[in-house]
């Protein structure tokens, strides 16, 4: 845990999202001051309300929120003009491979423009330490499996290309100005949820990723699971991925921050965050059925454009240089995913109590009041 004398202030973009909310919780528990900016495009404020509860009254005082969009310079100016940040963790982005194929312009606008504005405002205010949320999709169809960080980058989807372009932009920015220190975290397929079942993944609309889709079928929100691709050259015909528990991903961000703060001249460096094990889609479905004691009806569908056959990583570099490794296996991932889904079959129940630092109003509830309210708010539902 960071001591009071060493306490740093971190801005988290997209901090109300799936990975963002779990990372914010871990930051609070490690005694960081945490500021979140989010536009709730694919997230809800209730996630941060529950993060406050899980963090406890003492730590939750260190969480601050701005309603805003990284594509709006005024929103970023509003945040940076009021607080000096020691580092930024940049999650804010659209992330669905399939949707990016259908709406490439939307992805290039959202993911790249917002990041460029963020770099500009960070430089203006002298904050040049960044942990960037990259993705395994930068590898496309890797030339070797498991893929390490030196494998040629060949993104095949618009989403993957936005991450690849942003990695190149990060390298160019750091090369032009050596004061920048940037860590690129290429995580693979984050799943699971916090062990409490209080926070988890709750996408708006039809899920684009496997596990939230499975959980919505399991709780009766969707009739069946579409399995895209059963003719891949794999052991069971379904695609293979490196699934990783979201808490492992969150802790990877803390390890990256520690490197930025404790190591000089980090430069711009990439790390894989994965287990190093490949699991097929059908194997993951079977593991979830075991964890939930539910039979998941499936429909076999053609492959989706942009999906790779087999991708899993070598996490050796992250272990050697960050001291990080994944702790959870597939069984724990499915256990925690089901715990979240069974307690929250309809996703987050919103309270509307989150305080926007950018627009404080007289009489608004402070964080202590929110925590006290949430302590009396039952998030566990019988199902």
TrEMBL record:
This is UDP-glucose 4-epimerase. The lineage of its organism: Eukaryota, Viridiplantae, Streptophyta, Embryophyta, Tracheophyta. It comes from Rhynchospora pubera. Keywords: Carbohydrate metabolism, Galactose metabolism, Isomerase, NAD. Pfam families: GDP_Man_Dehyd. Residues 11-336 form the NAD(P)-binding domain. It comes from the Eukaryota. One of its GO terms (molecular function) is UDP-glucose 4-epimerase activity. It is an enzyme of class 5 (isomerase). InterPro entries: NAD(P)-bd_dom, NAD(P)-bd_dom_sf, UDP_G4E. It catalyses: UDP-alpha-D-glucose = UDP-alpha-D-galactose. Pathway: Carbohydrate metabolism; galactose metabolism.
């Amino acid at each position: 845990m960071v001591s009071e004398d060493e306490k740093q202030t971190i801005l988290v973009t997209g901090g109300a999202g799936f990975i963002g909310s779990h990372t914010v919780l871990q930051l609070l528990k490690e005694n960081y001051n945490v500021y979140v900016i989010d536009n709730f495009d694919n997230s809800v404020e209730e996630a941060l309300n529950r993060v406050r509860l899980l963090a406890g009254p003492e730590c939750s005082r260190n969480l601050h929120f701005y309603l805003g969009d990284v594509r709006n310079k005024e929103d970023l100016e509003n945040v940076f003009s009021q607080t000096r940040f020691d580092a930024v963790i940049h999650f804010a982005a659209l992330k669905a491979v399939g949707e990016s194929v259908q709406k490439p312009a939307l992805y290039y606008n959202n993911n790249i423009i917002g990041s460029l504005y963020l770099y500009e405002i960070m430089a203006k205010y002298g904050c040049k330490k960044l942990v960037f949320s990259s993705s395994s999709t930068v590898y496309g169809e890797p030339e070797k499996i498991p893929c390490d960080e030196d494998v040629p980058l060949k993104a095949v989807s618009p989403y993957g290309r936005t991450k690849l372009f942003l990695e190149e932009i990060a390298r160019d920015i750091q090369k032009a100005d050596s004061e920048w220190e940037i860590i690129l975290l290429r995580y693979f397929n984050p799943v699971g949820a916090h062990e409490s079942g209080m926070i988890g993944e709750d996408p708006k609309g039809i899920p684009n990723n496997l596990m939230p889709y499975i959980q919505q079928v399991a709780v009766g929100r969707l009739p069946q699971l579409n399995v895209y691709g059963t003719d891949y050259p794999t052991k069971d015909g379904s695609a293979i991925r490196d699934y990783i528990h979201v808490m492992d991903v969150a802790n990877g961000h803390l390890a990256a921050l520690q490197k930025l703060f404790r190591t000089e001249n980090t430069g711009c460096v990439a790390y894989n965050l994965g287990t190093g094990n490949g699991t097929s889609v059908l194997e993951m479905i079977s593991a979830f059925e075991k964890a939930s004691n539910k039979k998941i009806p499936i429909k076999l569908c053609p492959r989706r454009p942009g999906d790779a056959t087999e991708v899993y990583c070598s996490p050796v570099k992250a272990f050697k240089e960050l001291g990080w490794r994944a702790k959870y296996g597939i069984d724990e991932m499915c256990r925690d995913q089901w715990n979240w889904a069974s307690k929250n079959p309809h996703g987050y129940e919103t309270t509307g109590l989150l305080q926007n630092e950018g627009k404080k109003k007289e009489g608004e509830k402070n964080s202590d009041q929110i925590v006290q309210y949430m302590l009396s708010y039952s998030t566990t539902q019988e199902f």
